[in-house]
Amino acid sequence: MILVLIDHDGGEIDPLSLRALTAARKLGHDVEAVVIGQSGAELAAIAGEYGASILHVASHASISDYTPMASGRALKDLVEKLNPAAVLAAGSPRGNEQLAHLAAFLDIPMAAECSQITLGAPHHVLRARWAGNLIESANVHSELLIATVLSFSTEPESINGPAASVSQFEPNVQPADTIVRVLSRSTGESKGGVTLNDAKVIVSGGRGVGGPDGFGNLEELATLLGGTVGCSRVVTSSGWRPHAEQVGQTGTKVAPDLYIAAGISGAMQHIAGMKNSKTIVVINTDPEAPILRYADYAIIGDLHQVIPALTSAIRQAKG
Amino acid sequence: MSKLPASAKCVVIGAGIVGNGMVYHLAKLGWKDIVQIDKGPLPNPGGSTGHASNFIFPVDHSKEMTAITAESMRQYKEWGTFTETGGIEVARTQERMQELARRITSAKSWGIDGGRILTPAEVKELVPYIDETVIVGGYYQPTVGVVDSLRTGTLMREYAVETGAAQSFANIEVLDITVENGRVTGVVTDQGTIAADYVVIATGCWSPKLAAMAGAHIPLTPAVHQMKDIGPVPFFKDTKGDIEWPIVRDMDVFMYERQHGTGLEIGSYAHRPILYTPEDLPSNATAALSPTEFAFTQADFDIQDEHAYELMPSIVGDENVREKYAINGILSYTPDGMPILGETPEVKGLWSVAAVWIKEGPGTSKSVAEWMVLGDSEIDLHASNIARFHDHQKAQFHIKSRVDESFNKTYGIVHPLEQYASNRNVRLSPFYEAEKELGAVFYETAGWERPFWYESNKGLLAKFGDKVMPRTAEWESRWWSPIINAEHLQMRESAGIVDLSAFAIFDVTGPSALSVVQKAALRQMDVAIGRVVYTPVLGPNGGFKSDLTIMRLDTNHFRVVTGGAHGMADKKWFSDLLPADGSAQISDLTSSYTTIGVWGPKAREIIQAITDADMGKDAFKFSTCKVIEVGPLRVLASRISYVGDLGWEFYIPIEQGAKLWQMIWESGKKHEMIPVGIGVYGTTGRLEKCYRAYGPELETEYTVIEAGMQSPKLKEADFIGKQAHVKHRSEAPVSLLCTLFVDDHTSANGEKRYMMGNEPILTVDKQPIVDAHGRRSYVTSAGSAPSLGKHILMSYLPTELAVAGNTFIVEYLGEHYPCSVAQVGATPVFDPTNERIIA
Amino acid sequence: MDVLVCLKRVPLAGGTLILTPDARDIETKHLGFGISPHEENAVEAGVQLVEQMGGTLTLLTLGPSDAEEQLRSQLAIGATRAVLIETDGQEWDPQGTAAALVDAINAEETKFDLIIFGAESADSAGYQIHIRVAHALNRPIVTNVKSMKVENNLVTCERVVPTGREHYEAPLPAIVTVRDGLNIPRYPSVPGRMQARKKIVDMKKAEPRIPKLEKVTLALAPSKDKGAEILGKGADAVPALVEVLKQIGAF
């Protein structure tokens, strides 16, 4: 049996968890899921749809929101009870963190960001390194495999399974486990409520934009397309835009339907954050810019001319 | 991107300042069908141009380098990419102050004016952020400036493209350079093959790799130059543009500081030499910054930080002024510090324009383009000629050890006679051990160890006393010994034996041999067998390309003997004249034959004692050669002299050299023959006889007439440069080469000083002397004339001033000394009728 | 307060990586080295805390002796001293690394109020060493911190998540991992460099363990050129792009 941690916020599932579920199912074992927090019980239907037979719900009076160490404790308790072959989670900051707590509790290895998993003795994984530019082939020497699934390596596949049966349990949470927990939340910084993570369209600018003023045109285009503005690392480290808009390894990794990269040459760390976008359009003066290798469409030209022309053409087309 | 053409007249590889300069100047000179490629993107393909500091100090002790730099500055100004900032070289030591004075005098010789010595307070006035207490003075050159080399290159490339002369392609990687029958045929790239008649390698530190593809050699090494940019500097807050403040070179710590916008760039040549090979350079894709911008290694810069702090504490010592950018930038270094220019000796049509820095780029490109298109360049490039390298000098060991040694001399005080310590004892004559035992002090030429003088002759100092013209000043005593002058005097009394193994020797043979040497030589070569002819070799413009001797050994057999330093360039010059039908050949005998010279009034007696051949005045005439038997040896004896005394050069297979040396040595004993070093052969003996040397006196810029070397009758046969030479003969010369004596050597502090060469000759009111062609008068060679008790200076003087007895001033290390013309033209000041030679 | 920042020496790579012939490491002969991007923020945070509150900032790394270069650079921006656990140059697995760090931290006289890591290393990104160290030291840990305040013996942190910001706090002594954006890391000054030369770097040895996450080989991720369709040059190409956007349903 493979146990998959489903991450959620107040009952709203992290879609990356579905990828982890799919990856687990493809290993040919039974799949059971676990959520931390009572509100996770609402996820039985979707967990079942993606192949989990049982949804273990860990609830405890001291877990009301994300509490990573307690998650690790709950997972440890469940592992000791169920003795699964592997515990998987999404290769997200939370997935990695919670499984790392589990691995630390058990003092066994953990393989993060795996694009391929083969159970065995030892287990074998392919895992992403260097912002996804390198693939490590690694053996994992432990009976239980703890691994997170590289975000975009597996497409979520529903098997239209029946709702998972819910199995409640109370982990043996210690006071130290709950010291660090989400105390409160505030909403994102992005204007108009569209964040990088859920934007369908991102209009991103790089060094070629030339300065903070140049982003006005990008914002206008993004708004017109119902999207948001992103940028490269040099833009945030130059202080032209807030860090929240940075796309890349040290910013946010995104995969929108449309990614327009304007004046971005395509450093490795930026590519790592956007290469999974469905359609990539590049606007750049340099026909040899590295980012063109990842583009579906490109216009060779100055973004300061192309973007305003594009905005007005779309306006016209929309009528 | 448009497709690469399948063929071109000329492919220029590289789009840095040099490659762009080449396409521009080739286009300007009328070439079309030029294709430029670079493996990187444009406008900055990632070579050294992209990270250059871009400032230009127009002064160098080398005339060639100064001329190229001046021409480059002219072009940068023409493009509007030059900003004049002025520059100051500061000194922390008195020794450096002397060097700065020497730099000003070199500048004056090469026509760069305006330099002046500053007190620390005056330096502070120009550069308020300097701590003047750590310096003892400075040298201000107002014409120093900063250029935009990327912009200049782009403008030059665009000109060539827009005029239809050239096409330019980025991101093209060269995979091979093809060669057939010793001639380049094309360039194979990752995007197709371009057939080409000419291929120019302008790829900076990658050049050796490209040359190797064609089987040629460009002996340079990529080396690190460290720099860091700190800022923002509050003091520069309101500066506008790239640069406003003078560039400062902190010479004694081998560093420079220049304001760059609101930042200060600190560069260094003081760190340990960090050498790479072209294979170490990453591709554009794998490089973190660019292929020639390596990660900064702070540990190598620690001491430089402190030195910068000392000089500019208010900026460098400011905790809030932070490193913005720091790199180990890659530059090209060569084993002798000069660029590598010209057609490769290995492959016809393959040209190198390598090891060229920003300050030289446009000028070099123009000169090499002239060389390619017109057959010669206006500026003499002999010291940069790629053909200068001997085979052993292409070895990595040689390149690395010499660059390792000389890297820290980039801002060093380099004595004109300074010898390399590394990679010595590479070429040893058969007499080397014998010479060593005689206390020979070895200097190196072309890898050969040559005795410069012999400590065993020290006893002669007492004999000759003050006639050896002893020197007290450290600078001109360095790399010098009064023993040289003692050897000279003893040779004039009895005889001296000279090791001449460093001669380059090559035979021209075959049915067309005569026409080959005729083509090269100014003098008549259709002479009797057994004649020895000393002849200038001219370039197409009628200037000097060499001077050498040619022996006619048989109807179709000529032996060319030339100096070691220039030998390989001469060999290429003659090789280029060989007919395509194979009717003449050249064989290099440099390593097969060794040469011993014996000169002096006793030379005949010494040699006659060991040979049955008649060495008598009439039996063995001056300017003839023949094979004689010396005991068991058959020796080619050639009766000529470069020192002004009776004697011969003896050519002998190298393995028999020691035997010959020993026999002459034994025979010379009873005639007080001494071993004589190159100090006599190359300087004192030659200067007394007013013999000109290739390089100092003889170069492209001067004519045979000006050098006073025209023969009464013009050779009928055609030769290179004839047309120009005929014209020169018909015109009044603008300048004439003169021999001058220094009339008073006494400096301000009462010490006697002796010029070393390259000093400006000034009018008595201390004004530079410029001839009608804009050429300055300067000392081409200087040295003792012990037989005359004089210090000799050679200099070209405008014809109207070239009058015996005319007085002038020579500036030396900032002081002025009177001198006067002793001789106009080539007539020797010692033994003017050559009685001693023809005796 | 006394702060410890853990660092890792990593190559500063360009747009494309190349591997060593045995495919176990990336070829670094032409690359320089630095520390991971988030770690620059970690050091900056440490320097700021010590500037504000006094105390010491210690750096700790595990790596080859050459990692001293990275430590000196960070000492130059204001750290007090550094400890280098010298390895044989081989990469250690996360458990081995964490254990060696824990041993070194325990061996320190200073009991650090705050230990800061970067959120992930640039090269291996295993997402666990900091958590293993926290478990071993019995300290609370907050990860991926984008904003941080220390007062009243408490570290208050913000973490950016897709829906906004989460707020955490932990009593000292604690561990945090920080992300780019936390601050703007400063670069060294020349006086900083000069002072750094005189600062102490303690060299320590640790015995390698048999790795449980055992690297076998590395491979370059396939990054096939998607063969972008060039729609044209400049504004003239806009109509073609509008067509494309229509087709993919962007509006």
UniProtKB/TrEMBL annotation, chain A:
Gene3D superfamilies on file: HUPs, TPP-binding domain
One Pfam family here: ETF_alpha
GO BP of this protein: fatty acid beta-oxidation using acyl-CoA dehydrogenase
Positions of the Electron transfer flavoprotein alpha/beta-subunit N-terminal domain: 2-182
A GO term, aspect molecular function: flavin adenine dinucleotide binding
InterPro entries: DHS-like_NAD/FAD-binding_dom, ETF_a/b_N, ETF_a/FixB, ETF_asu_C, Rossmann-like_a/b/a_fold
Similarity annotation: Belongs to the ETF alpha-subunit/FixB family.
PANTHER family: ELECTRON TRANSFER FLAVOPROTEIN ALPHA (PTHR43153), ELECTRON TRANSFER FLAVOPROTEIN SUBUNIT ALPHA, MITOCHONDRIAL (PTHR43153:SF1)
Protein name according to UniProt: Unannotated protein
Protein's organism: freshwater metagenome
From TrEMBL, chain B:
Positions in coiled-coil regions: none
Sequence ranges assigned to domain FAD dependent oxidoreductase in this UniProt record: 10-371
Protein name stated in the entry: Unannotated protein
Gene Ontology CC terms, in alphabetical order: mitochondrion
Similarity field: Belongs to the GcvT family.
Domain GCVT N-terminal: residue ranges: 431-710
Entries under InterPro entries matching the protein: FAD-dep_OxRdtase (IPR006076), FAD/NAD-bd_sf (IPR036188), FAO_M (IPR032503), GcvT/YgfZ/DmdA (IPR028896), GcvT/YgfZ_C (IPR029043), GcvT_C (IPR013977), GCVT_N (IPR006222), TrmE/GcvT-like (IPR027266)
Segments forming domain FAD dependent oxidoreductase central: 375-429
Domain Aminomethyltransferase C-terminal: 764-823
Xref: Pfam families: DAO, FAO_M, GCV_T, GCV_T_C
Automatic annotation (TrEMBL), chain C:
Keywords: Electron transport, Transport
Family annotation (Pfam families): ETF (PF01012)
All residue ranges annotated as the Electron transfer flavoprotein alpha/beta-subunit N-terminal domain in the record: 23-207
Gene Ontology MF term list: electron transfer activity
Entry's family note: Belongs to the ETF beta-subunit/FixA family.
Name of the protein in its database record: Unannotated protein
Natural source organism: freshwater metagenome
